[in-house]
Amino acid sequence: FANGGGVNGLLVRKRQLLVSLLSQHKDVEILGENAGHHILIRIKGLSESEIVGLAREEKIKVYPVSSYFIGGVSAKYESSVLLGYGALSEKQIDEGVKRLVKAWNV
Q: What is the per-residue DSSP string for 38-80?
């Protein structure tokens, strides 16, 4: 599927779309975009619980990184969350980002 077709090509396009949309907002820091069907982000000025709670109010699930650490989160990943995109359509990604950046006020 090196020509960008098939399932792998679709996932690459979805990741590129998500990264492109989020990169337009200066307070969104993309920490990792090669995390399977997820990207790792931080929102400047918001705690992990605020990021998760504001997303939840929009009925969007984001995954707190702290739940993946034993004995506390390293400073590098404080206030970070994972956003999944693998099961979403490109339209859903676009709409979801619009709702999240509004909720996060970025």
A: EEEEEETT--HHHHHHHHHHTT---EEGGGG-SSS--GGGTTE
Work out the mean pLDDT of the chain and round it to a whole number.
90
d(CA 55, CA 52): 5
- pLDDT at position 74 is 83
Name residues whose C-beta falls within 8 Å of residue 97's C-beta, 6 or more positions apart in sequence.
Answer: 18, 21, 22
Contacts of 54 (CB under 8 A, 6+ apart): 46, 100, 103, 104
Tokens 């920490």, residue located: 31
